[in-house]
Amino acid sequence: MTDSPLSSADAKSIRDAIAETLQNGSLGALITVIQSDHLAVGAKLFVGDTGQTVGELADDDLSRAVVAAAAEFLRSRAATRMISLGEIAPEFPDKSGSQFMFERIEAEPQLVIAGAGHVGASLARLAALVGYRVTLIDDRAEFVAREKFATALEQGIELVCAGNWTDALRAASISGHGVSIAIVTRGHKQDEDCLRAALETQPDYIGMIGSKRRTNIVLEKLREEGCAEVELRRVRAPIGLDIGAVSPEEVALAILAEIIAERRGGAGGSLSSWRRALVPAS
């Protein structure tokens, strides 16, 4: 079929749906026909995370198959994927040559950091560098003073002086989806207050710094208060991947690596482990 431009009405509806998705902090998939003998190349369909659709593919059977595939695509955490109709709807062999580009639509990821000490400040700078929207919270005004974060990159870091840890963390991470929370405060009491608020907002990731002993004390306190075990098991404590980090900057890197692995569905292992497994032991 020859190329057919997207109608201006459909294009506007899809742009509006994407803008609303980004504004609301929700999730969606944009599907574009990139090859087909049955559909207009360039036709687009937007599928939201609750199954709502905007646009059309001019074939109801294929649309249903694509919408079902969009839900699976969103669960995969992939950013983009090219999918042939034969993969998702083998019941249409005469149309199996159709190919679609699936693109994930979501707002930039947010990282909320509770604690602006050496690790928290380093984590804020590093996360801003890799594209996170960063909120850095502390109850000490001098630790979140703008002059401490004055470079062009650091200007995008939101600095919050908390009168109350619980309220500040809850307000910063209200949407939940696309939000990671790193608790790197200076003591048990602050950890407890932050963790209570973090569990309420249901973010994608929660991590808490400290030794096994320190983090166990906090988790046990919340367990005694009646916090569900399934919720406590979501908490990464001690926080971060084991890279042998020592300096604050290295610890921040270990934390951000775990956050990215959780977001992207990565295993967090060595990419070369398969190769070393093939080498005979000497």
Structural overview:
The protein is globular. The chain is built from ten helices and eleven strands. The strands form two sheets. It has a six-stranded parallel β-sheet with strand order 8-7-6-9-10-11, sandwiched between helices. The longest helix is centred in the first third of the chain and has 17 residues. The protein has 282 residues and is of the alpha/beta class. The protein folds into two domains: 99 residues, no CATH class; 155 residues, NAD(P)-binding Rossmann-like Domain (Rossmann fold), CATH 3.40.50.720. The model has no long low-confidence stretch (mean pLDDT 89).
Concise summary:
The chain has 282 residues and is α/β, with parallel strands linked by helices.
Helix-strand blueprint:
Layout: H1 8-24, E1 27-35, E2 44-48, E3 53-55, H2 60-76, E4 80-84, H3 85-88, E5 99-106, E6 110-114, H4 118-129, E7 133-138, E8 158-161, H5 165-172, E9 179-183, H6 188-201, E10 205-208, H7 212-224, H8 229-232, E11 235-236, H9 248-264, H10 273-278
Parallel strand pairs: 6-7, 6-9, 7-8, 9-10, 10-11
Antiparallel strand pairs: 1-2, 1-5, 2-3, 4-5
Q: Keyphrases for this structure?
A:
282 residues, alpha/beta, Rossmann fold, 2 domains, five-stranded antiparallel sheet, 40% helix
* Order of helical and strand elements: HEEEHEHEEHEEHEHEHHEHH
The gross shape turns out to be globular
Stretches where pLDDT is under 50 for at least 5 consecutive residues are none
Mean pLDDT across residues = 89
Query: Into how many domains do the coordinates divide?
Result: 2
